[in-house]
Amino acid sequence: MAVVAVLASLCACGQSGAGPMSAAAGTETIVLSRADQPTVHRPTLERLKREAASSGRPLEELVKRYATRVAATSSPRRTDFEGYDPAVTDPGVTIDGIPYAELVDLGVIAESEGISYAEAIDRFGSQSSNSRVIDQLNAEFPDEISGVGYVDDQRGLRVGFKGPIPARAIELARTLPLEVTLIGGKGFSTAELRRAPDRGEPGVLAEGLSRLWSRCVTTRGGPAGSARPSSCPAGIRRRRTAPRTRRGR
Question: 176-229, pLDDT tens digit by residue?
């Protein structure tokens, strides 16, 4: 199952930067540029950012204060006690559509990534709404999706399909506030790779690995054959073929 996980996460491997990519033989690629995607509107958070800049107070503190005020006016629970945290007692509190509990998590992410709280909100604040679209893609195309993954430090999304890119998938992708690259003709789906080990079909798994390997070489290292094996992830280098089966004695 570890190999299946690697394949699922890397099925749309390729350049991580923005812009059109050269498609490998038999594939099609559609890039929905960030400039043409929806714009995120967060008027309250933008106002709080300006207030933080002018007052010198931490944005995280102002966000918590605002969430507490919202909870005080909308929650039947008491909010006037020491240690009150709306992220714990009032999970329904949101700011510009983002649950306050997630805004708290973004503070942790900002610290771990070494970025500002404002940048963390800009980069990761849409993940909940993005996840709903991703879940819808997986639900509508369970036998076609070959993987979904963020690229370019969460600034873009890459979606792979076993066959042609469905028109409905393009429609859904156009609702996301980030660049989306859709790749069709991968030749396998995540569902098939998950089923292969359970059905004792090492050939299916080997074919998927082989396809992934050739695509990684082609898209990451230039013309096919010109890239070194190290240009692909270690998980693929270690196991590019199906596991051997023991012969009966």
Answer: 999 999 999 998 888 888 876 555 555 544 455 444 434 443 334 333 333 333
Distance CA 219, CA 21 (A): 8
Collapse the DSSP code of 29 into the 3-class scheme (helix H, G, I; strand E, B; otherwise coil) and give the result. Answer: strand
Q: How many residues does the chain have?
A: 249
* Sole residue written with tokens 């509190």: 93
Alpha-carbon span 64 to 85, nearest angstrom: 8
151 closest CA partner among 59, 18, 1: 18
Which residues, at least 6 apart from 204, have a Cβ–Cβ distance to it below 8 Å?
Answer: 188, 192, 193, 195, 196
pLDDT at 133 over 60: yes
Report long-range pairs for 103-111 (Cβ below 8 Å, ≥24 apart): 103/63, 103/67, 104/64, 107/60
For 43-104, what is the HEC assignment?
HHHHHHHHHHHHHCCCHHHHHHHHHHHHHHHHCCCCCCCCCCCHHHHCCCCEECCEEHHHHH
From the list 131, 165, 146, 249, the residue with the least C-alpha distance to 204 is 146
What's the alpha-carbon Rg for the chain, to the nearest Å? 22
Per residue in 60-119, pLDDT tens? 999 999 998 888 776 565 555 555 666 666 677 899 999 998 999 999 999 999 999 999
Closest CA to 152 of 33, 13, 19, 17: 17
pTM of the model: 0.63
Nearest to 215 by CA among 198, 235, 236, 234: 236
